[in-house]
Design brief:
Strand order of the largest sheet: 1-2-3-4
Order of helices and strands: HEEEEH
Strand content: 15-25%
CATH class: Mainly Beta
């Protein structure tokens, strides 16, 4: 689980906008033009732009459980 302190400083690496924690498994960029979603695997955010690109067109409610 990511702490509130860590969440407060995390930003999307592509557009530098704040991210929001979703289902304790995803960090979702709050910029409606960016829409990248980054999985959290073993409590480690995978915030590579290439990883976020994979889920741009996936609705938040349709995101899979990260493996």
């Amino acid at each position: 689980m990511l702490s509130e302190e860590i969440l407060a400083i995390l930003a999307c690496p592509a557009c530098k906008t704040r991210v929001e924690l979703v289902r304790d498994a995803w960090l979702v960029c709050q910029n409606p033009d960016c829409r990248r979603k980054y999985p959290i695997v073993d409590d480690i955010p995978n915030m590579l732009v290439e990883e976020g690109d994979k889920y741009v067109d996936t609705a938040v409610e349709d995101l899979p459980t990260p493996s």
